[in-house]
Specification:
This protein is mainly alpha-helical. 70% of the residues lie in helices and 0% in strands. The chain has helices at residues 2-14, 17-72, 75-86, 117-124. The radius of gyration is 41 Å and the shape is flat.
């Protein structure tokens, strides 16, 4: 019988409000570092995605610059670039402007405005 009362007393102490509150506080204190680690992990994943996107952008830019360097390494490429930027040419060259026929597209008629409720009534009763 003594064991029964001791178990009951132990259960009463364990399920008391102060002990439950203490267990809750300990649980919250244990969750705080886990939450901090989770937020750091999330921020790191976002930074990793940003770095991957920047790497892809820089790789594409590197390829474009390599092509530009390849183009400018030839005499023809340098000449094209000079003509494009400064509009220069060799001696004796003249500018030819080709003018084509101007295409006129037919103008679509303006859509008629939607009839108002008064117009609908007048259409329903034409003699009024």
């Amino acid at each position: 019988m003594l064991e029964f009362f001791e178990r009951r007393r132990l259960r009463r102490v364990l399920y008391s409000y102060p002990v439950i509150g203490l267990v809750g506080i300990v649980a919250v204190l244990m969750l705080l570092p886990a939450w901090s680690a989770y937020s750091k992990m999330h921020a790191t994943a976002e930074k990793r995605e940003e770095a991957a996107a920047e790497l892809a952008h820089l790789s594409a830019r590197e390829e474009a610059l390599a092509e530009e360097i390849e183009r400018l390494s030839s005499e023809r490429g340098v000449e094209e670039e000079l003509r494009r930027k400064f509009e220069v040419g060799h001696e004796g060259e003249e500018l030819i402007v080709i003018v084509g026929l101007e295409r006129t597209e037919p103008v679509a008629p303006a859509p008629e405005p939607e009839p108002t409720w008064r117009d609908r009534v007048r259409e329903a009763f034409p003699l009024w």
